[in-house]
Every structure is written in C-alpha cells, then in structure tokens.
Amino acid sequence: MLVAMDLNASPLPEEDEETFERHIEEYTAPEEHVETAVEISRREREERRRRLKRERPDDRSVNGPSVHDRPFQARNHRSYDRNKLPPGWLDCPAFGQEINFIIPSKVPLGESFNDLVAPGKRYSSRQVIHQQRVLGRKLGLVIDLTNTTRYYPSSDWEREGIKHIKIACKGRDSVPDNAAVNSFVYEVSQFLSRQKQTKKYILVHCTHGHNRTGYMIVHYLMRSQSMSVTQAIKIFADARPPGIYKHDYIDGLYAFYHERKPELVICPPTPEWKRSSDLDLNGEAMPDDDDDGVSAAPGHEKHEVDVVMTNDDKIGDDIPPEQQKALQQFCYQSLKLPVGGHRGPSQFPGSHPVSLNRDNLQLLRQRYYYATWKADGTRYMMLITVDGCYLIDRTFTFRRVQMRFPCKITNDGFVEKTHHFTLLDGEMIIDTMPDSQKQERRYLIYDLMAVNQVSVIERPFYERWKMLEKEVIEPRNYERQNVYQSRNPYYRYDLEPFRV
C-alpha cells in the first residue's frame, strides 16, 4: 500500500514536546496583570516540574525509588540559627485591633536583634508599650505562645510591671494541645475578672500573631460568650486580617466544638508578607521556625482505628491546678461541707455506697427508697459551667470535656443560655450496640446537687429527681431533636465524647 507524504510539512511534535506558540502563551504575561511574588514562585515551580519531566521522563525506573518510597526527610533543611529573624516578620503587621481587651500581636524582638532590624522596623517591648499607651491602652499581661525563649527575656516586661505568662505551643504541623488551650482561657478569664476600675489589656502573641494566637482567642470567645465557631473566627479575622490562614487550625476549631463547617467558610490565602522564599514546594506557608531547632515530626495519615474502651480510660483534658482548686471549693460549698484547713477540700465529696447489712436494713423500713439496676461503670460527678463540663473522679481530679447543656425552654419555645455551675452525680458506663457491636459511653445521672450555683441538696430526693428531668435532661433532648430536624444543623451531638 502506498502512502502519500508531504516532504515540506513540519513534523508533528512529540507528546512531551511543546510548540513555540504554547511557550509564548505561557511565558508572556498579560499587560494588564502584574504578578505577585507568590504567583511568580508558583509559576516557576510548575515550569521546573514540566522541564524535569521532559528531561527525565523515566527517572523513577532508572534512578531508584520514587519520592514516596524514600525514607522521611525533614522538610526544613536550613541550619538552625537562634539569632535569625523569624521568616516574614519584618513585613508582618505589628498588631491588630483589640478583642474584649485582648490585643493580637506578632512577637516583639529583644535588643539582641537590633543589628538585623532597621530602626524604623523595630518592634520591641518598649515600642509595644509606647504604641499601646498612645492608643490609650495600658498593658497588664503578656501571653507568649511561641515555643522558644530566644526572642526576648521575660524581664523586659516584668521591669515595667507587666505580668508575663509562657504557654509554649508548637508552631509547626499541629494545633495547640487542649491542655494549653485550657490554661490560656483560664489565665485570660482570671486576669479580666480581677479588673476593678482601670481596665488593663492583654497582649497575646505567637510568631506572627495569626494562627496560634487566633486559635487561642477563638477558644476564649467560644467559652466566654454564646456564639458559633464561624462568628468567633470572623471576629478575629476582622481584628487581625486575614485572620487564621492555616486549614488545620480552622478545621480543628470546628471539630473541637462539634460544629459543622459551613461550605461558605474558606481559608484565607497566605498573606503577602509571607514571601515566596517562605513557601514550600507546594506553595504553602513554611511553618513558624521557633521550636528551638527541634524538627517537626513526620506527618502521619489519620486512619480510623477501633479502640477498645475500658472503665480505666481517662476522659477529658487536664486543667490548671489553680482552676481545679476553685472548682473543688465550689463543690464543697454546694454540698454544705466545711472548706477549712490549710489543705482545703481534698477528698471526693460524693455519696458513698454502704453494705446492705442488718443495721442498714432498718433504713429501708424507715424511709421510701428507689431501686435500680447495678451499673458496672466508673463513678463520676459532673460540673457543668459556661466554659465547659468537668468530670470529677474518685480522686477529686477534674478533667474538661466538650459537652452542651442548654437551660430549660422559655415560653417562646427557645432554649435559654447554657447551665453554669450545675453539679450532678452519676456513673459512666460502656454500652455495646447489639446491631453494630460498636462501643459507646453513656453517663447515667442519679442525683442533682446544684442548679446554676444554687444548692438543692436539702430538698427531698424525689424533688431533686424531678428537677433533674426538667432542668437538665428535657432541655438537652429538646434542643438535640430540633438540631437533628433542621436543614442545616450546626451542632453535632453525635460527636460528643459520651451520651447522657
């Protein structure tokens, strides 16, 4: 068979070749658009990838294992220098607007960094105090969230009569842990509650004053006011643009408070002051390098693992010792127990079981009593407050859990604010679902000692039992039913650590 060929025709390009016209389209920038440093970095990276693909199409099979098959290597290969400036610090705005007497800020740098920062760009403790004083704000507390001590000595603040608190939080591939969040919320709440006439302000900073700082401030807003995660994130973003710009921090907030993330909520882009040199190969912002030279651990994919529950499991998160002492005193006061002594309340104040011997049998003849099935679980009292629920074990140790307990329903059909200082007694059991064989925890409440700071232990048990149903159980079930029936439920009761 004969095939006609045009010897003057240009050969067709190979699959991995590109035509001259395509290069013109890619490399000629439109006149009306000026590329930013971030866009230039991303474009150059894509061009390098395409060029390497053309030059070494068989690199995987010839040169050895792929990137995924190689052992883990640290993302940051730069040598650690305690005297270098934090990446992007110079162009990062110094501080944002105040939020309920809290000022989000980037980290102030001590005098040891003066040689690296021009006089007009310096931002030390002196500049911070002066700038806030000009705005009519007097600082009384500084909370440092960085994971290093190299930026400034705490004495810079203490010499000026300003309290300094260090809550070290890793600034790399993980959000602050729950114990650190509890400490932050407690310190802020205590400082503001002790203010009498002259209100002093709190300066909160991480390295740049956006992700860790925003994460903590949003937690405080959620626990001190009635609002959704979306509202709290927006409040911080308006005060410190662009707000939290790391996906895992935003997702972590919604997950912690058991709220659905609306589709309209979009993570802001990396700020311009995070220069192209501070972006990794994927165009994402490099982690804040303030971990005293400790490299971040390799990330692990999350796999759902069926963990066998036991009655010995610890439920909830640690709280500061000072907060625990205050909550212990409230429990003793609610139960009309003496709080005196240098050690204060130290023993579990809940009722204790007694043996059904001959002497105790007389009590059954003298009083009415209730009979119930014997639950094989763990004894816990529960203290419900606005800023969280606290499980109290037999050692009188408090651990915080994220639960929701709305107050009783009003005449308009709406649920009022959540409970505040309501004390319950009960037992935590583990149920095994017959159809799925899945385990889940359930808290069985069998007594009510205080409702919204009012002790009720002197009332008869049958009255306390009715109050428990009306004040605690019914409002919670009512709201949960309405949430499930709504088209866009914002709160997910099914994500709580246990049922009630």
From TrEMBL:
Chain positions recorded as GTP binding sites: R379, R394, D425, G426, E427
Keyword check for Lipid biosynthesis: no
Q: Which InterPro entries match?
A: Dual-sp_phosphatase_cat-dom, mRNA_cap_enz_bifunc, mRNA_cap_enzyme_adenylation, mRNA_Capping_Enz/RNA_Phosphat, Prot-tyrosine_phosphatase-like, Tyr_Pase_AS, Tyr_Pase_dom, TYR_PHOSPHATASE_DUAL_dom
Q: Where is this region: Disordered?
A: 1-20, 26-80, 281-301
Gene Ontology biological process terms, A to Z: 7-methylguanosine mRNA capping
- Report domain Tyrosine-protein phosphatase positions: 112-263
| Protein origin, superkingdom | Eukaryota
The GO terms this record gives for MF are:
ATP binding; GTP binding; mRNA 5'-triphosphate monophosphatase activity; mRNA guanylyltransferase activity; phosphoprotein phosphatase activity
The record's listing under PROSITE patterns reads: TYR_PHOSPHATASE_1, TYR_PHOSPHATASE_2, TYR_PHOSPHATASE_DUAL
Q: Which residues form the Tyrosine specific protein phosphatases domain?
A: 182-251
Which residues are annotated as active site? C206 (phosphocysteine intermediate), K374 (n6-gmp-lysine intermediate)
Q: Which UniProt keywords apply?
A: GTP-binding, Hydrolase, Nucleotide-binding, Protein phosphatase
Protein name (record): mRNA guanylyltransferase
